[in-house]
Design a protein that fits this description.
By secondary structure, this protein is mainly β. It folds into 2 domains: about 240 residues, 3-Layer(aba) Sandwich (Rossmann fold); about 180 residues, Jelly Rolls. It has 7 helices and 24 strands. α2 packs across α6.
């Protein structure tokens, strides 16, 4: 995690008790902008996107984040955050990236809108425009546009319609998104100023996709772009949202912008395939639902949305599905502290000891550990050395099994492409089974998060 970002995943009761306190950040010459990112609900990979957004924005601007993800994957959750009337106190700007269309209580909507009407700036992203359909127009007036539906999923070209606006500086004349979800706009409210538009294949209209709005005393920046992780991770998108956020608080200036000299950490590589149909997130970042540790359960905890392995030898098994995985794509984000060892095991099953001795394979996790088999390799089958990644930085670890072929990518770079020979012997062979994560020893600390899998035929 970058030193300038303070991300707090706040339990409900704790949040309600400290809502008046601002998130902490290390001292800087310029006081960081205190941003609250609210996310959760239906239809999007919020577990990954909250990190992409907070890391990407903080790499570009002097912003300290507090992140609240609540409401599960439903459309009708009244999230605990808003139960506190002072939920917005202590923050300079609120980012609404939630998806709760089924909450139809005007009083609840007003509880959310009150601080914005009184002057708290806001950023509204994608599905926020489809929230709180309470049969009034108040939420839409706040957003600046009214939208009830979207078209099919396809790339579209965004045209810059206000090049003189400071938010659109550096955007260029146009930008083509990856595969996206284009919202259809029924109304642009008089308080809104369009900044970008895109042609809809369905309506044949130029739909507003970027705009600013004035809601009471509060400034609002909005965009309907941002359905897929691939889009949210694009530099053009992160630059746009960063500038929109700074504009909303009146601080779009060189004093608050940061030069982006390196890819934002901890997401040097974001899953581009996970936007496709068939992927399933199998870790929720909150508890061990669907997972079970074997010999030393105390070696596992959850911290900032990640499973943390530290302690005596143990393996954390995925037991959330009975059907074994044979052909699949698997991906997660991993981070190690210096000298640590871990592993990602597949085609394995419940075992009291080392699972790869009993059954299955292990993709190694070790950058500076003394073991000469380094990150990405198939343990005792295909050795990788040196490690393709560094300690203390998140990387994306991808495994694909298709028949007798195993491909391992680390940060999108292929490090293993192995086809099992017909005469392969021993227990560590391609077969079928589940997955497990490894806690190797008390001197090792390994973090695993955003774990996804996609079954293949």
């Amino acid at each position: 995690m970058p030193k300038h970002i303070a991300r707090l995943i706040i339990p409900t009761l704790l949040l309600l008790s400290i809502a008046g306190q601002a998130p902490s950040a290390e001292p800087e010459t310029v006081t960081p902008i205190r941003a609250l990112l609210i996310t959760g609900g239906c239809c999007h990979d919020y577990t990954a996107q909250k990190n992409i957004l907070s890391d990407g924005i903080s790499a570009r601007a002097n912003v300290a984040f507090t992140v609240v993800q609540q409401g599960g994957e439903t459309t009708d959750a009244k999230i605990p955050l808003y139960e506190n009337a002072n939920w917005a106190k202590g923050f300079d700007v609120i980012i609404h990236d939630e998806c709760f269309a089924g909450v139809a209580d005007p009083a609840w909507t007003e509880r959310i809108l009150k601080p914005h009407r009184e002057g708290t700036p806001a950023v509204v992203l994608h599905c926020a425009m489809h929230c709180y359909r309470d049969k009034t127009d108040e939420w839409f007036k706040f957003c600046g546009v009214t939208s009830h539906r979207h078209g099919a999923h396809y790339p579209f070209v965004v045209e810059n319609v206000d090049k003189a606006h400071p938010i659109m500086k550096g955007f260029g004349d146009r930008w083509e998104t990856p595969k996206e979800e284009l919202y259809q706009i029924a109304k642009v409210w008089p308080t809104a100023t369009p900044l970008g538009k895109a042609r809809s294949r369905e309506t044949k209209n130029d739909e507003v996709v970027i705009w600013t709005n004035q809601f009471g005393k509060g400034r609002v920046f909005g965009t309907t772009i941002g359905h897929y992780n691939e889009t949210v991770s694009q530099p053009a998108y992160l630059n746009l949202v960063t500038r929109g956020l700074l504009w909303s608080v009146g601080k779009l200036d060189e004093e608050h912008l940061r030069p982006l000299s390196a890819p934002p950490s901890p997401s040097p590589s974001v899953d581009m395939s996970a936007a496709s149909d068939g992927w399933k997130t199998i870790s929720n970042g909150k508890d061990f639902d669907g997972w079970k540790p074997n010999e030393t359960p105390e070696s596992w905890k959850i911290e900032d949305g990640a499973f943390v392995a530290h302690g005596q030898r143990s393996h954390l098994f995925y037991i959330g599905e009975k059907e074994p995985f044979k052909n699949f794509e698997f991906q997660c984000e991993v981070k190690t502290t210096p000298g640590s060892n871990g592993g990602l095991c597949f085609h394995t099953g419940w075992a009291g000891g080392w699972p790869t001795v009993r059954q299955g394979m292990e993709s190694q996790v070790a950058n500076t550990h003394s073991d000469q088999q380094k990150t990405g390799g198939l343990y005792n089958i295909v050795k990788v050395n040196p490690s393709p990644v560094k300690d203390s930085e998140w990387w994306t670890h991808y495994i694909k099994v298709d028949g007798k072929r195993v491909v391992v990518k680390v940060n999108d770079k292929v490090v293993v492409d192995y086809t099992e020979p017909a005469d392969a012997k021993g227990p560590n062979k391609i077969s079928a089974g589940s997955f497990c994560l490894q806690a190797h020893d008390p001197k090792s600390t390994v973090y695993y998060r955003n774990i996804k899998v996609k079954r293949l035929p």
